[in-house]
Amino acid sequence: MALLHLTFAPCPLDRLLKPGADEAHVWQVDLEAACDNWLSPLEQERAATMRHAEKQRHFIAARSALRLILSRYVEIAPEKLPLATAAQGKPFLDVPDAPQFNLTHARGKALIAVAPVAVGIDLEFARSVRNLDRLVENYFAPEEAKILTALPDDQRAQAFLAAWTRKEACLKATGEGIAGGLHRYRVTLRADEEAQLLSIDGNEAAAREWTLHAFAAFGDGQAAICAASPSLLVKGFAL
Ligand SMILES: CC(C)(COP(=O)(O)OP(=O)(O)OC[C@H]1O[C@@H](n2cnc3c(N)ncnc32)[C@H](O)[C@@H]1OP(=O)(O)O)[C@@H](O)C(=O)NCCC(=O)NCCS
């Protein structure tokens, strides 16, 4: 797969961060590393409803990391950041001129994207996919299904997950979530192609308003970032 090469460097802590107009920052976070709990009372309540201890621990770590990272972009303490939630569930910072952001977590790891424009990020780890053919049929466009089902068995799951991350990053950027319809966002699927959003509801001009990149994270993790900008420079940081 033609991927964006991204390295995750330590970030300077002595100044307020501000991504450039067509720049996105991607933060890599280990959710098993010790961290302070910066959750709001509402987030604490949500955490308390989680019965699965690991899920709860990772939710607290991800939200705390998110708050800590965002506090480096606005001059507000992590625990005081006004995080709100849009209609379809996308969290946003309810502050004038605040940067936009998105979060993805899997297997104790998280990626957090911060940009001046709408941004979405998704991460999936290599694994076998149950009912792959049914998922492809239900969620992908017929032309895409044709490409994926023609692949040898040993390549299909990997290609499916790569495609899924690309589409989900787009749907998370717009805030629609999966319910918005993965089939509506056509993306490149072949191993030798760079990640690209090809069309939205068949409209190629609309797709050119967005940039999609795919990159590797945490070893065998496949990740994708999508942002509302015709070009996008991505910088990686480690917390
Ligand atoms: C949130 C969603 C977009 C993706 O969820 P996911 O892949 O399970 O989870 P991710 O870790 O990538 O993202 C979750 C985060 O996205 C953010 N999010 C929630 N709703 C969102 C939306 N509508 N748009 C953008 N971001 C959203 C939240 O920060 C959430 O983290 P939190 O719950 O800790 O606050 C959801 O709409 C969804 O439909 N999930 C179904 C996933 C699925 O079926 N996956 C199968 C893969 S083979």
What is the strand and helix layout of this fold?
Blueprint: E1 8-10, E2 23-30, H1 41-48, H2 53-70, E3 83-85, E4 91-93, E5 100-106, E6 109-115, E7 119-125, H3 132-139, H4 142-149, H5 153-174, E8 185-187, E9 197-200, H6 204-207, E10 211-217, E11 221-227, E12 233-238
Parallel strand pairs: 1-12, 2-12
Antiparallel strand pairs: 2-6, 3-4, 5-6, 7-11, 8-9, 10-11
Helix pairs in contact: 1-2
Characterization of this structure:
A hairpin with a 3-residue loop joins strand 10 (211-217) and strand 11 (221-227). The longest helix is centred in the C-terminal third of the chain and has 22 residues, at 153-174. Helices cover 28% and strands 27% of the residues. The chain is globular. A 5-stranded mixed beta sheet has the order 1-12-2-6-5, covered by helices on one side. It has a single domain, classed as Ribosomal Protein L22, Chain A (Alpha-Beta Complex). It has 6 helices and 12 strands. The chain is an alpha+beta fold and 239 residues long. It starts with 7 loop residues before the first strand and ends with a strand. The mean pLDDT is 94. The chain binds coenzyme A. The site of coenzyme A (COA) has 18 residues, from helix 2, strand 5, strand 7 and helix 5.
